[in-house]
Amino acid sequence: MRKTLALAVAAVVALGMSACNSSAPSEETTTEAPTPAAANTDPVLNVYSSRHYDVDKELYDKFKAESGIEINVVEGKGPELIERLVREKDQPEADVFLTVGAESIWQLREEGILGSYQSETVDANIPAEYRGDGWTGVSSRARVIAYVKDEVDPSSITSYNDLTKPEWNGQVLARPSKSSYNQALLASFVANDGVEKAKEWAQGVTDNFGRTPKGNDRDQAKAIVAGEGKLAIMNSYYWVRMKNSSDPEEQKVADSVGLIFPEDTHVNLSYVGVIANAKHQENAVKFMEFLTANEAQSMIAKENGEFPLNPQTEVPEPQKSWMPFKPQKVDFEQLGKHLADATKIFGEVGWE
User: From CA 83, how far away is CA 103, in angstroms rounded?
Assistant: First the structure.
């Protein structure tokens, strides 16, 4: 069933639980698998997670304290964990997969990894457009356009297409094409506008690059402040994390950078999916209910700068100041189907 992203101020944008540790992205994968529980009734939950945030650890502890359920966590990069889930499909060790990037939903479905669940609580917590059979969104993050406040009039940029205009030649910065955030962004353009228009956009942006793509989203913000460009593509929650950083230099960068939420702002989800034939199905559902409840949603939004999806959760500052904005409509369950086209386009236009 098609899941579309509709404008919903209270529910919008946007765990996402990827991309980075509270201080820096994790590059390591835990190799030890969680010990399988002896029975479905055991107070155990095995989680595979590509989210590496301090707030996640707080949530795990809180869930254990409230439910009495012990959580075993295997952390790693999304693709590595998905590969592991595929290998273990016949005898799954994970009960849930917690990750960023809704583009992986399609692959999990195709591989037969996603199970199914029923929960009136989750249905009440999360609007239908942010959940599907076997999964539910937890939080969202917006992919926006950052600009140097003293050098750019934000009213001159209203869409992603503006990044391709000749006046920004040599002024646009972005992460490499291998970034899952950029892959999802371009895949959404392929899904909504077709391959040719998506390629035109990617070519226009590539032609306007001020430097070879490198680094993470924080690096793009730092680089435009340093004068390497004037515009950058980045996720809004990185700005929040820089603003709240203990590093004075990162705070200074955040103060010098503004964010533009373009028309049809691309947002992506952090979601949790239940694994087919999970050993602890009941505990998995309890965990999903916990993550989508108001308290957990509020913690994710406040501590990690993401947008809550539960409409009952108050959106904190600065996210609230960026609302309302018009989010892009995208079919989350089909987004991953277009990743191959996005990868091909990046190669063809020379976006390294």
Answer: 15
